[in-house]
Amino acid sequence: MIKNKFNRFGIIAICLLSFGYSCAQKNISKNISLKEVYKKDFLIGTALNGRQIEEKDSNAVVLIQQQFNAATPENIMKSEVIHPGWDTYNFDMADKLVALGKKYKIKINAHALIWHSQLPGYVRRLKDADSVKQFFTNHIKTVAGRYDGKVFSWDVVNEALEEDGTMRKSIFLEKLGPDFVTEAFRLAQQAAPNTELYYNDYNIEQPKKRAGAIALIKKIQAAGVRIDGVGIQGHWRASNIPLKDIEQSIVEFSALGIKVMFTELDLGVLPNPWDGDAADVNMKAEYSAKMNPYANGLPDSVEAKLTKGYEDLFKLFLKYKGKVGRVTFWGVNDSQSWLNGWPIPGRTNYPLLFDRNFKPKPAFDAVIKLKK
Ligand code: G3I
For residue 17, is it within any domain? Predict the structure, then answer.
């Protein structure tokens, strides 16, 4: 009897608690949702990791459906995951992502078809150009073909440029020559006629690298091959956002007749060992407490910089809303960000609009306020 009463009480308490929790969560969306507030301006996206795609991270799932109408897989469509053996493909997670997109009406930007990084081991070991070409062709045909009409867009080529605007020294440049970018778009166009096709890179708002990207895009267009947009990744530091270069880039890229997107936005607040805004995943540095100054919380002054940074950026995006097609954050909340592990592992960074408890930060409020 006592046990029964306890059970009943326990069940009622759990119901009340979860009802209260879900009300609190729903309130965020009912009143304030990024995708709703910006629906007439541009898409608002997020990067999704494996746990989020499988809906194992329930707090993230709440935010994903409330706040975003676009999503990019953070890792699961990269070639080492989706094409692990010469004749082996692993579509499991990508299929789940497509289903998630359908369920929550989220447009999927597939990432990334041709990228020198996160290549499967067997590709990195290839020595002859013919084999690289065969991988390149099979990969694009099979993967882009399978998801045509199921994903909204592809980052067809990712990060093919060096900082000075010349072609990056990659296996693709070495074995296939500088036309490999145009060829990737040509194959993607054939395999995925119903999918938008983009070039994606970091620091292409910077003048030299931007000039390289413009030359690359013009070359694709001159070959009569379709390219629908360019993605400026947007891994910047909150204290040093190159607003003028970003504005100039929106103007110059859109003059090519393509969409401009901000595809991996995050604003780091931690010291950078090299004092730059690179996003090269191979760069690593040693951990020290000095390089991790906000492990126990973010001071108000730094939070204010982050808020101002997002406010300035979204003001600019709104100014060019006819040209900017999408703004995607590189993660749902701060705990998921790659910037906690790069370029120094084990740090505590605060680059996104939602904190480690999935709560909207002052930067979120500032971005919303611009539309009030
Ligand atoms: O897959 C292994 C897993 O098997 C293992 O258990 C785990 C242990 O650490 O590592 C897993 O791989 C990690 C992978 O993320 C999946 O979590 C890699 O070590 C790690 O290096 C990888 O980092 C990703 C990085 O790209 C790698 O290139 C980041 O999550 C991802 O945010 C980042 O995203 C890139 C964009 O694709 C392109 N632009 C720059 C951006 C930031 O670097």
Answer: no
CA–CA separation, 285 vs 267, rounded Å? 19
User: Distance between CA 157 and CA 217 in Å, rounded?
Assistant: 11
Token duo for residue 137: 């062709």
- The model carries a pTM of 0.91
Query: Is 264 tagged catalytic?
Result: yes
Could you tell me the distance, in angstroms and rounded to a whole number, from the CA of residue 242 to the centre of ligand 1? 26
State how far the Cα of 165 lies from the Cα of 213, in Å rounded to an integer.
7
Confidence band, pLDDT 50/70/90 cuts, at residue 277: low
CATH of residue 203's domain is: 3.20.20.80
Contact 352, 269 (CB under 8 A): no
**What pLDDT, in 10s, does the model give residues 162-217?**
999 999 999 999 999 999 999 999 999 999 999 999 999 999 999 999 999 999 99
**Is position 159 within any domain?**
yes
Q: What is the pLDDT of residues 211-229, one digit of tens each?
A: 999 999 999 999 999 999 9
Pocket test for ligand 1, best of 57, 74, 340 (most atoms within 8 A of CB): 74
Pocket flag, ligand 1, residue 233 (CB < 6 Å): yes
**d(C-alpha 226, C-alpha 323), whole Å:** 18
How many domains does the structure of the chain reveal? 1
